[in-house]
Amino acid sequence: MNGPGAKGGTTVRDALRGWGGVTAMAVVCALVALVALCLPPLTTTAQNTTATTHTAGTEAEEDCEAPEKQTLSPSSADGDTIRAIKNRTGEKRKLIVGVDQNSYRWGYRNPNSGKTAELEGFDIDLVHRIAKDILGDPDAVQFKAIPTDQRIPAIQDGRVDMVVRTMTINCDRIGDVAFSAPYFKTGQQVLAPKSSPVKGYDDTLADRRICTAAGSTAFAALEADQKAGKLPASTDISTTVPNQLDCLVRLQLGEVDAVVTDGALAASQAAQDPTVQLKGDAFTAEYYGVAMKKSADDLVRRVNQILVDYRKDTADGWQASYEKWLSATLGKDAKKSEPPAPQYLRTT
């Protein structure tokens, strides 16, 4: 279920196309589990299913109106954080990055890519670019698979140098971690079966069960909107999962009626299962950023410089990565997903 087929070949999903329903899902899950047993291990952080509790009432949150602009200006200079990374020796001289391994075309293991089934996707391309700039080797990376609700703790605890995992920049999170400038524009959207009466983020969600990832922007939006009366009180938002892909499985098994997640991720999930589709338009405007420790100013500035260069690189940069991984699910026009020109805090 995670991977696309090699060109000209036949994939598991292709073979199951048209089966539909829970039976196909059961077969796919069994096959994916079998493939996973054969894949090389990926370092995984300890998983805590308790949602992260963020600090509330901080000055940054109270004054926050445009969280995507709360970042430092670009710089190529090495500081204490970058020097510590460069001073790692031997096999440990790698950039340690928290990623997803289950988000199709963003960060996932493609079983059709070869015996090693290496991580691939739009986020993974960016990680390799950052590693190349800082360490001179795009493959000098130690990937750590991190569930959605563990992204911030993994940074704060020092388990990773950064997280590149479709992570939305928002006012709550900038009190806990530092973000780069935005590298992708998206918004929350509803995913449901094509046959479902759900039409979008509206009253058709009344009496429906919705799945979101624990600690996600989607869950926070649903909770806030329900309290404000913008979402029907009868909508059940209690189903949360560690990883976004788990919501698609819940939907396919009939355990929930809809999924709410970033539209970019929802489009990729719809590409994995032809029986579901996006319903209605995105109801928020959000941006993905690279998350790092609050104290890692030099690393934040360095990543922002890398992003400037990455977006300018027409041959092997942002545009090329979009065309390779996302154009099939989000469309050929990349401009709607490209963030605006970055703005930085007025600090030196």
Question: Which structural category fits the helices and strands?
Answer: alpha/beta
Spatial sequence of strands, sheet with the most strands: 12-11-13-10-14
- The best one-word shape is globular
Element string (H = helix, E = strand)? HHEHHEEEEHEHEEEEEHEHEHEEEHHH
Give the termini distance in whole angstroms. 47 Å
Number of helices: 12
Secondary structure: helix percent: 25-40%
Low-confidence stretches: 1-41, 44-61
Radius of gyration: 20 Å
**Largest sheet composition:** 5 strands, mixed
Overall pLDDT confidence: 84
β content, as a range?
Answer: 15-25%
How many runs of DSSP E, i.e. beta strands? 16
Please describe the topology of this protein:
Blueprint: H1 12-16, H2 21-38, E1 43-44, H3 59-62, H4 80-86, E2 95-99, E3 102-103, E4 107-109, E5 119-120, H5 122-135, E6 141-145, H6 151-156, E7 162-163, E8 178-179, E9 184-186, E10 188-193, E11 209-213, H7 217-228, E12 236-241, H8 244-252, E13 258-262, H9 263-272, E14 276-279, E15 286-288, E16 291-292, H10 297-312, H11 318-325, H12 327-330
Parallel strand pairs: 1-6, 2-6, 2-7, 11-12, 11-13
Antiparallel strand pairs: 3-4, 4-5, 8-16, 9-15, 10-13, 10-14
Helix pairs in contact: 5-10
